[in-house]
Amino acid sequence: xxxxxxxxxxxxxxxxxxxxxxxxxxxxxxxxxxxxxxxxxxxxxxxxxxxxxxxxxxxxxxxxxxxxxxxxxxxxxxxxxxxxxxxxxxxxxxxxxxxxxxxxx
Length: 105
What we know:
It is a single chain. The chain is mainly α and 105 residues long. The protein is built from 4 helices and 2 strands, in the order αββααα.
């Protein structure tokens, strides 16, 4: 087997393993739970029992999660600023239209 063919085969196998492990990871998500009832902060939501593993997995699969359907994308600074401005505009009191004369209340 030629070296170029061997390298292509190895890269293809690694890519299949990478994408396959990602699909397996997505198929069996770890569900979040509430903290135990005897915990002082019992309403605390526990998203991961192993934050360092969770962070490593997010870093490892970052290229795929950016394109995966259903991934929660984080807004850019401009999108975040626009959303905050829109939210603040909704909270501002709006002037009430004056009643038109001649209309019954």
